[in-house]
Write the structure tokens for this entry.
Amino acid sequence: MPIDAAKALAAEPRTGELSWDARDVQLYHLGIGAGTPATDPDELRYTLESRLHVLPSFATVAGGGKPGVTSGLSMPGVDVDLARVLHGGQSLVVHRPLPTTGTATATHRIAAVCDKGKAAVLVLRTDVGDAEGPLWTNDAQIFVRGEGGWGGDRGPSTRPEPPAGDPDRTVERPVREDQALLYRLSGDWNPLHADPEFAKRAGFERPILHGLCTYGMTLKAVVDTLLGGDVTRIRSYGTRFAGVVYPGETLRIRMWHAPESTRVAVTAVERDDAPVLAGTIVEHP
């Protein structure tokens, strides 16, 4: 069996050093669509080093190494075909605001292996901290088609109920034709997002946008629309990737705002509001 759940869960955590600087942060922000209009003071907080702040979702690419969706496939007990892999979901807990320049230690481990019958779900947990203490914790849910059915634990199956009533705010964000090509420069080199032949082998008509790019675009929309542009208010952010986005499409981002959290739903406008992100919650004061 390509996935040995017992071996994966028992494996020693892997540690490594991450480092990043303002250029990495700026490149990530550009990769999720920041900088339009280029001279807008609100956008300059994402693009100009003298005003720079860090959107917390930068944590998913900090250090420029393999993201969780691919690094988890090199862990002990895991040997699967990349073409069978999809990013099922992502959650982030922010322990304190991310600095524009930093060096930290990352600890990776498989936190769960779930048997969903026709697929397996791996949860790769990454804890990151520096000399001052914890910075963030990332969980990547990795969906591997065709690798379930061994009789293992199915894992949690509850999903939050969809938000009730009309959203408080709705915004639309265009995805550039070259968005995936730019975003992958932050470290996710999966050919699914650039190579048409690989995308077809994986079952898609053409390369798709990184789920984590949509993830970052959505968080930026919430911060800019509802939180006064204050990235330091983000405490946690989680979502389930419910569908794909093709470069050139438009994201419709609906937000239901409450004092301590914002519920979000994201759809693709050009495909009759096909779901893209679901069960999305941003926690904030």
Q: What stands out?
A: Residues 161 and 279 are 8 Å apart (CA to CA). The first strand starts at residue 14 and ends at 20.
